[in-house]
Amino acid sequence: MDKGVVPNGMMIAQNQTLVTEFILLGLSSNPRTQLVLFVVFSVVYLLILAGNAIIMITIVHDHGLHTPMYFFLCNLSIIDICHATVTVPKMLADFLSTEKTISFGGCVAQMFFLHLFACTEIFLLTVMAYDRYVAICNPMHYLTIMNHKVCLLLAGTIWLGGTVHSLALTGMTIKLPYCGPREVDNFFCDVPPVIKLACTDTYIIEILIISNSGLISVVCFVVLVVSYGVILVSLRNHFSEGRRKALSTCAAHLTVVTLFLGHCIFIYSRPSTSFSEDKVVSVFFTAVTPLLNPIIYTLRNEEMKRALHKLLGRKISGEKM
């Protein structure tokens, strides 16, 4: 490169070329494949918005669902909408664009909100497991233990914890110098692929990421599995109908936990080396899991289905009058 000539997306600062934007390599470089993916993920994103919105509206309108379990489920739907919105709209736009760039500030914002919502969801799933543990193992004192004030305190704590985690992780990332290359090997900005582009040794940062995100994921996963194990053991003393309902709820929660935390453990519990499976796992993390949550928690939940039918019946009656 000639002296003084700087490629697009870079600027000179203190005798060093700094990156001002990144290039997202995306899921495919084939135009036809990108068009197909655009259609598929457009439908997926609309279903995520519609499914989670229906859950929230149903819970708000049905007073029979104003319980701790559905309060946390409503929070989960909010997080899923936000989580998908951080990455999917940008991915859809890039499918139709020849220049798949994102500004440095946009990349940082994407990383911050991605980890904010992801970490908050991990904590929320852990709290939901505790809620089911109290409801099944200590039903006589359930409403006393999980009262309105406790639920609000837990919700505030998990959002605060997610914020602190995301600030710490993003803060470590943006302090690194980036002077090229600019290609992020994914369809969104995440900490592992971005720090690979830093023009400095990132070994300590990678260890901190593993001890932060990786440890949170593994510990929460172990806590969740142990919690549901205790619940399953305690279900032996329940009547068949109550046991069937509780097993169905626990199975739904475990499905979500496995899909969501499986990605976090796979990506953040190892040094930032790229595997061919990373993008596929990331698709499940950002798009598939937020889509599955409404299906799992609605189609497998009799109370939600009854409340949804009642809400739809009320709206149809109102339109006829």
Automatic annotation (TrEMBL):
It comes from the Eukaryota. Its main location: membrane. CDD domains: 7tmA_OR4E-like (cd15940). It is a multi-pass membrane protein. GO terms for cellular component: plasma membrane. It is found in: Cell membrane; Membrane. InterPro entries: GPCR_Rhodpsn (IPR000276), GPCR_Rhodpsn_7TM (IPR017452), Olfact_rcpt (IPR000725), Olfactory_Receptors (IPR050427). Residues 51-297 form the G-protein coupled receptors family 1 profile domain. Pfam families: 7tm_4. Keywords: Cell membrane, G-protein coupled receptor, Membrane, Olfaction, Receptor, Sensory transduction, Transducer, Transmembrane, Transmembrane helix. The chain crosses the membrane at residues 35-57, 69-88, 108-130, 150-168, 215-235, 247-268, 280-299. One of its GO terms (molecular function) is G protein-coupled receptor activity. Belongs to the G-protein coupled receptor 1 family. This is Olfactory receptor. It comes from Phrynocephalus forsythii.
